[in-house]
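Assemble and predict.
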Amino acid sequence: MTNVAGAPGTADAAGAPEPAGERKGSETLHFARRNPKLLIGLGIVLVFLLIGVIGPFFVSDSPNDYVGPKSRPPNGEYWLGTNTFGQDIWAQFVYGVRATFLIGVFGGGVAFLIGTAVGFVAGYKGGIIDEILNMLTNVVLVLPALVVLIVAIAYLDVRGLFVQGVFIGLTTWPWAARAVRSQALSLATRDYVDLARLSGRRTWKIITTEIAPNMSSYLVMSFILLFGGAVLTAAGLDFIGLGPSNGVSLGLMLESAVKWSALQLGMWWWFIPPGLGITVIVGSLYILNVGLDEVFNPKLREL
Amino acid sequence: MWRYIGRKLFVYLLTFIVAVTINWMIPRFMPGDPVRSMLSRASVGDPEALERMTNYYNEVFGLDQPLHQQYLSFWSGLFKGDLGISTMLYPQPVLDIILRAVPYTLGLLIPAILLSWIIGNRFGAFAARSKVLDNTVLPVGYILTATPYMWLALLLAWSLGIVAGVFPVAGGYSYSLRPDFSWMFISSLLTHWFLPFLSLFIVALGGWAIGMRNMIIYELEADYANYLQALGAPRRLVRRYAFRNAMLPQITGLAVQLGTIIAGALLTEIVFNYPGLGTLILNSLNSRDFFLLQGIFLFVVVGVLIANFIIDIVYVLIDPRTRVQMTGGSS
Amino acid sequence: MTLRVNDLKVYYQTLRGDVHALDGVTFDLADGEIMGLAGESGCGKTTLGKSLIRLDSRMRHVGGTVELDGKDVPVGDDEAMVPFRYHEISLIPQYAMSALNPTRKIGRMVNELLRARGVRPADIADELKRRLELVGLDPDVLDRFPIELSGGMKQRVVMVISTLLNPSLLIADEVTSALDVSTQRAVAESLVEFRDREYVKSMIFVTHDISLVYQMADTIMVMYAGHIVEKASAKTVINEPRHPYTQMLIGALPEVGSTTVQGRLEGIPGTPPGLLDPPTGCRFKDRCPLAFDKCSERPPLVEIEPGHWAACWKTG
């Protein structure tokens, strides 16, 4: 309630005329505007999002067509050069960035849905249901996700971005479930939740209207982490050769660069941009997340 | 506390059963009849060998038997240490091929995990000392955890291997040598080991540094730290306590991060064509050797479970709170 | 005079400006005096306690002086305060239950703390054991981890640790609020005994529980919204309070001495003023039934009879 540790009452009373909700909102915004981590992270992510969303409309070359001279370093015509086959690396990069965001949203989204659902139900219901879900969470948590994914996806003859996303979601949700569970557990004992329960409202209704909104910032941060994790996992799968068939992604670019000896041929422009793209997008998201944490968590705020 | 360990063991056993079941189910229930497509595409040139393999598959999968029968015989094969015969390196048993690769992977993983954990923790604790340090170490740490393992491996291979020419970038040892205990072979082994190790180490380092930094900041705000400072205890003492206490959750973090780091090792090996499990996975995928792939999967899962259990035991021994509860304590 | 606080001002820095949590506080504490410090939450009593030993990162010393046994106490200078801490001024914190490092055996932690403060643990080991026994603890607790002790035991251990170097001033901050009634009394009695045995010279006992303070304290000081409103012997404050705020505060209590609360307390209408931009003059004037024109000037704390101080135009 009060934003001054150790001085209860004083600050509350000071802001008494303003409605509490509005005050909290404007305060969050105030901190958000001055948090360099949040601003820089968000800025970079938005730039890449823009590249991924509108970039493909400005690229005349199709990413997998053999359009230009072979093995050219970056130049005026082909900004990031061409690979051994004469494919335009900038075109691949732009489409790859788009694929990166898509897999992040799909994979991270599926993991988020499963993780929060399991976490909320376990934390809110408790008892035997909690016990079972907890066991399930622990089992999936211990399994090394990428290795499971390799085995599962290896058997698919035709692979797409969507299927990859679903599989990633199915294997990477457990830590989110744990985190959400512990939060929900503490919220489930609050008075207003008790009140809602006593008035006979349905479980999912209570979860969505009483519990989830009170940890919305936490949920946003969880989603961002799952998003980043999905991007990295997908890049790993693509790199092993289990990426979308005939697709374009940053991970697939890395795969073909290694497969066709870009390293030995000294074609740095082939493997640096895709890896850099992934690193910068995911890294900015993580830093953005730290910024969000500092903004939403009064304990971390600095004066 | 024995209950705690028992519970953990139960989860691990359950995980093992789930893993084996996944392994059994995938070839049978994936859409598109994978067994048949595997057979038709197995890259074996010799027609006689293909003939033998077809018989072998029919026998192993026992596709004419009822499902539960298939499942049970799968388990009994497993207990006999039978992971099947590789198609890629026919007729070598999968187990032998895996056992040849495991030392390389462990040789990368164990030093990389331990060193990155120890140094990363020191680094994170150091970062929590001042604003300036914190503001540089934190973003660098997050960027490192966002780096795909294979990309850093590529960068190191390119810069230190190709451009500077200091380290070899492919294989586990020089192709001109045969494995023996000569000084030359061992030094070749070490120079080939260094870059994959380094790239694994650097990426993992970032995660530990961040984890420690966050934990120690939390500990420095804890009541016991405030009390000590009110009594005039020097920062040094308070930091030492905070560091020790922050180490404990970092040990649990080791278990949580294990899967990610193993994945990283597999990807790094591929970049360097390092003869461990990662390269083996790539090769088995390329020649569609599913027995080998599934054998590796089981092996990694078992390895993860064992490592998890070791970490659990270490945690119980190190944290006085659980230790006290385990020996009965008092009051 | 043990402690002399003169016009002490300590503000909290917040986003919207300074919160005047302690706004010109002047009082003395005599040798051997146990002073109860009472008031509603947010009145500045905890801030005063912290100011005398270690300021929070958000607290700022704005003005005023503190003198202990004739020496100037540099409350605003964290480094310069170190020699005073523990040796001269000590603290039993509000959070005594969690004040001990959970992963160190208590004895080892104490030894490390003592060594860091330039005291050889061996020189004081016997005294430590004696005092543990005095509060009813087996010296074996030194070989245990905090988790092995009950809440009351931890509380007593912290009491012994805090007073081990015989400080001149002890600040006990809400030490009883987390305890049940019988333990509360035992803790209060131990503290009085510590004073009687001269383990501590004088003590400030911060609490919101006036009836407990009445039983153990020599004097009571009442604060309101960052100001001192009244200070007198415990008996006087309870039986013949002069400041209207103290009168209403005492009137709002159940009969002193009874430990059961019968029905709801009759609250004081209104809320304390915000201290971000505090009103001028008497801070109680908006809730005070006796308020008149003069109250827009700040009433000074004056001695209305020997040992009885009050800050109100009506009592002066």
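Residues 1-88+168-174+206-254+266-316 of chain C form a domain with the Rossmann fold fold (CATH 3.40.50.300).
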